[in-house]
Amino acid sequence: MTAQAERTRPPQAGTASQMAIADCDIHHSPRQFTMLYPYLEPRWREHLDLFWQRPRQGNYSGPQYPKSQPDASRRDAWPPEGGRPGSSLDFMRTHHLDANNIALGILAMIRPHPGGFQNLDLSAALCRAINDWQVAEWTQPEPRLKASIVVPYEDAAASVAEIERWAGSPGMVQVLLLSRTVEPLGNRRYWPIYEAAAAAGLPIGIHAFGNGGQPTSSTGWSSFYIEDMVGHAQSCQSMVTSMVVEGVFARFPSLRVVLIEAGFAWLPPLAWRLDRNWRRLRAETPHLTRLPSDYIRDHIWLTTQPMEEPDPAEHLRDTIEWIGWDRLLFATDYPHWDYDSPQTAMPLRLTPQQRDAFFIGNARSLYAPGEIGRAEPQDTAQP
Amino acid sequence: MTAFAPIDCDIHPSIPGLVALLPHMEEHWREIVQLRGIDELNSISYPARSPLTARPDWRPKTGKPAATLEQIQRECLDPFGSALAICHCLYGVQLLFSEDMAAAFARAVNNWVAKELLDREPRLRASIVVPTQNVELAVDEIERCARDPRFVQVLLLASGDQPLGKRVYWPIYAAAERHRLAIGIHAGSNYHNPPTASGWPTYYTEDYTAQAQAFQTQLTSLICEGVFNRYPELMVVLLESGWTWLPAHLWRLTKYWRGLRMEIPWVDRAPSDIVRSNVRLSLQPTDGPPDSAGLQRVIEHLQSDELLLFSTDYPHWQFEGTNALPPGLPQSLVRKIMVDNPRATYARLLEPVQ
Amino acid sequence: MNVQLRSDPAVSAASRVAIADCDIHPATRGAADLHPWLSQSVREQLETFGQRRRLGMEAGPAYPKSQPNASRRDALPPEGGRQGSSLSFMQAQHLDPNNVVLGILNPLNSGQGLANPELSAAVCRAVNEWQVAEWTGKDRRLKASVVVPYDHAEASAAEIRHWAGHPDFVQVLFLSRTAEPLGNRRYWPIYEAAAEAGLPVSVHAFGYGGAPITSTGWPSYYIEEMTGHAQSCQAGLTSMLVEGIFERFPRLRVVMVEAGFAWAPSLAWRLDKTWRTLRAETPHLKQAPSEYMRQHVWWTTQPMEEPETREHLLDTIGWMGWDRLLFATDYPHWDFDDPAHVLPLRITEAQRSSFFLNNARALYGVDA
Q: Which site among A263, A314, B52, B311 is 20 to 30 Å from B78 CA-CA?
């Protein structure tokens, strides 16, 4: 994506001139689903064999809205040795981590994330297996990569147990939910998860997608994949609204939330709207003692992919200022087709402080404060 | 086996895969499928390896059950001595949201069925798979396939976007009545609504059980909305519904009709009468009591021997061996179930086929 | 202790056998009836923002009823107020002449299923207080249900524990259309509390959980909603059985209220058949679903099933068990079942007394 940026600036070539960056949304997956089986109890292997995954949708496998590319991925991201895009650590290293000088990559397991499965016991078992697998086969061999704890979020007690299992583990830097849940994410049923994450000092990462089992919009099911994709902005707005208005941030003052792959330009107008409505209707929510926009400002970060593309590009500066230069976390969404290239994604001229914050500083503060492995910037020019 | 050559009103050939449908699509859709890497449209209504989906002796070592004509002949048509069998292809066309894509897939499925099954085996008939996502396109597909006398019915699913009696769907019934096609409502869902009034269940066991309730809902809707008043010749067949729920449902619906007729004044006959004239139910599964005497009572409660249509539901696992008929049925009823009722239901079965 | 004032029941009641009525709907005359038990801030919230159910209508039902308040027109109290809102009129019109010696109150519109959890819990508590103050405290034939904000398990368990042991409360009340199916583990703490307290859980048709009221969307007509309670309650019961709540809470008892009952045998047969084929999915179930049903579930009888051939009902009840049914009138609703005419069948005395009284006595532990 970011074709517009390509028109306005020539891409920079070569890794040697690039600064080290973070990528806060990388999608790994096992080459075949059965490669998770060594991490899974036999009872659940047998269950999967007979009944499979049963997400809250009619499709037995695959997405509800057919993608635009096979596996929704860049056509050049299929590993030469075979397997899905994102399934080969070796290929990811050369094709992406090395090529883009990624010093800190955050893995978000969404293919599949078992959190939305109908059978909650299966969900919990598979989450455990995936977490074991990603530490053993991704974060341990590759120090640049950190993983997200997948939890069976429709079962708060089981999620808490899984968070507690991994709390303190250096390979795990956040708890991962999907955005389309059975009830809006501010609902109390999810609060024990927030409590456990906050207690463990882990941010909650909420990645767009999932299936809560209801239509993907408030007005039913749309027809096209593009509507599904664009619609994440709407469903994430209602998710943020729910978290703020239900008082999640009032209740858990140390909680940090990262919105992943949801876009971000919608956030300022949403915050203004929430403030306005709260001023008028605050009798309904006595538990809120601050403006919604204050809660948002203090508790929410957002990854940058898919990068917003206003025309003129300078309008993006306004948007980021409204949100805060400390709030955005650069992400590529590798290996997906709408990947944002670090070379071209940011069309604005940035100060060195902004550039550092945007491309790596914010991510380090959030995910890896005091971590080893900081690479010195090799060049002060734009990446 | 009996002396009658039955008409099997519900069998499920499998499309081997999306790749098999490609030759039956227009070039644009072939390209789209390949360009976009579209996944197989399999529904969670029948998980591939669940015990219910295929009886062990009908499950091949590799590949899908009922995926070749040879399997269908050897496992289904020949052992039961069937004179005819009606194919219901459950490839998940209804799961799509894009109306045009759904129409393209529906056309491809119907073309595949005609070429791979109907052309090669004279005992086979089929139901027309339609894109209910867009009623006009569904009617187009009915008009197209109705020209082929081997299509005898329009296939709909037990749970969709709206209850099937709603007027938005009436053009489908008009087209079916026009062409003397039955309407076949088959177990399954597009899952655009949760499977129950209280949302999503946990287990497949619940989902499959809930299919019976979906049929009850649809029957209520069709009757109350007046579909049979408007289309009095229409025959509706409930496929793979379990059927033993019917008497209890009619008691309740008929009782409420007496009390609440003011809202639906066009329903000028008791629901139980409407069902006896316009609704039929396939035999398998028979959710019967453990004793054959009990099942006789249930049949007695139906108060009609014209309702049941023989079916095996091949290759789903509903019975053992060739015991598709529950034990203890009187011979006169057996003949009705196996031959007379299907013939009376499917007007087009009696038409000559080249 | 209140002295009970009764209009002279001697003549009519003497000719009537004593019965239990396991589904009576008391009503408030207006919102103010609950005010003694609602805080100022809750009252203000309700007045400013409304109840906010998971439904578009601010008040009233999703499907307009066939009669005002879905009630008998002759049940309007002479002193004014809605049908079911006057104890004295209920006594005169129903309890006394029908010789109801045990009446189970199921107050609907009790704040269950509201989107705001605090409001839901507050209104439920107020309704529970109101039942004691205005009904069971004044007429000892009446027993109350603990209404709970069932979509919030902790608050519900707390409400049950608050009332556990109180002699006026004989069950916990759910509505049937919950946010998730009734067997879902989010409800387990409620079942645990109910089982501990020795209280059956009663599931009454209706409620707005947020999903369409059928698996295939929203139907058009009230008659479809009414008929449809059979379907939604079958799914709710299926969930309870298949999720194994009776294995987990062996003391739990469940009553299905106002959903009909003739569907129970065919559901049991279907469940057993499906369970046998798919057993690998549910290793937590140690016996067939129909066994759990037989041991743990009861049904109220209204609306009484009316087969064309009346005797068919004997088959149905035979399959279920004569010990499973609890007579109910649904007073004051329009589809009220009159005990004098409801069971026009040749049955034994033992069957008749089980049906009309003894099953209820045994279940509710009330020696009426």
A: B52
